[in-house]
Design goal:
CATH class of the largest domain: Alpha Beta
Distance between the termini: 49 Å
CATH architecture of the largest domain: Roll
Strand order of the largest sheet: 2-1-5-3-4
CATH superfamily of the largest domain: Beta-grasp domain
Number of helices: 5
Radius of gyration: 15 Å
Strand content: 15-25%
CATH topology of the largest domain: Ubiquitin-like (UB roll)
Number of strands: 5
Length: 157
């Protein structure tokens, strides 16, 4: 049975009709073509699908699109001020080699931003704890932690 929904995605009003069982990640990727939100495990274990719903990190593979009705959704594509200028956290991941293949990176960045919003100056242990539930199969997390620390510092400027 179709469900009518409306939300704000990356600052733009969106209205659509979707099947009631449509996951938010599928709505974002398939209908809105926001493919920066990745599908990794389909079980909310890896964090590749992390987006912000009303300012909080949420795993979009574990949420129905209809549950986001009326919400403000931000994806990795909605972070940068422009195509020429990345968000400070995105720049920090690039500058501190906080990515390898890049598959987990959008989810890591979205989770890192949620952490920094709650704790603007996290230490290494807090960063590691805040990124729990986001898996990277390429790195040892050392550079990811450095990137989050640098991103948090750059966001204060």
């Amino acid at each position: 049975m179709p469900v009518r929904l409306s939300m704000t995605v990356n600052g733009k009003a969106v209205a659509a009709e979707v099947a009631s069982r449509t996951l938010l990640v599928d709505f974002l990727r398939d209908q809105l073509r926001l493919t920066g939100t990745h599908i990794g495990c389909d079980t909310a274990q890896c964090g590749a699908c992390t987006v912000h719903i009303d300012g909080r990190a949420v795993k979009s593979c574990n949420m129905l699109a209809a549950q986001a009705d009326g919400a403000k959704v931000t994806t990795i594509e909605g972070l940068a001020d422009s195509e020429e200028k990345m968000h400070p956290m995105q720049s920090a991941f690039r500058d501190h080699h906080g990515l390898q293949c890049g598959y987990c990176t959008p989810g890591m960045i979205m989770s890192a931003l949620d952490l920094v919003a709650r704790n603007p100056d996290p230490d290494e242990a807090q960063i590691r704890d805040g990124l729990e539930g986001n898996l990277c199969r390429c790195t040892g997390y050392h550079n990811i932690v450095k990137a989050v620390k640098a991103g948090a510092a750059a966001m204060k400027k």
